[in-house]
Amino acid sequence: MKKVYKYKENRKLKIGETYNFWIIKKLKLPDGVEYFVIMDPYNEKHLLPTKFYKHYDIKIQNLYPCKVDRVNCQGRLFFEPVHPFYKVDNTYSFCFKKFDFLLSKKGIMTEYFIMTGETGETAYLLFEPNLKLLKGLYEKYKIIKIRKAKIFIQRS
Fold it and tell me: 0.70 exceeded by the pTM?
């Protein structure tokens, strides 16, 4: 019978929870993609792509809070660093900038209103055909999710 040690029982990161990760270093892999090597509270190392988070002020040899976003079918964990200004479920002012499409990994084109926040950040509001937006007019919107540093909002 395998012996179970008590100190190893609670060593799992929970999806949706935020933990402080130690930013160890930057690493460039042979495929040319640059990553942060981060260490979780249980001393396990993970990779976080740097290309999405260039404006996040993530510094090497510092702690930075990251949310455990999801786990894929192979058991790989995906993390979302906490945005330096915006928080999910809070309401902020955004104004309409333009209309555009986003292409998902699955090849699906989705229509979005591209919005600009008071800090200059870009946010995405799902297209609604009967919604009329005026350029330069700030309105309140609720942040529904932040994924890969993209801010997705809805009318509040």
Answer: yes
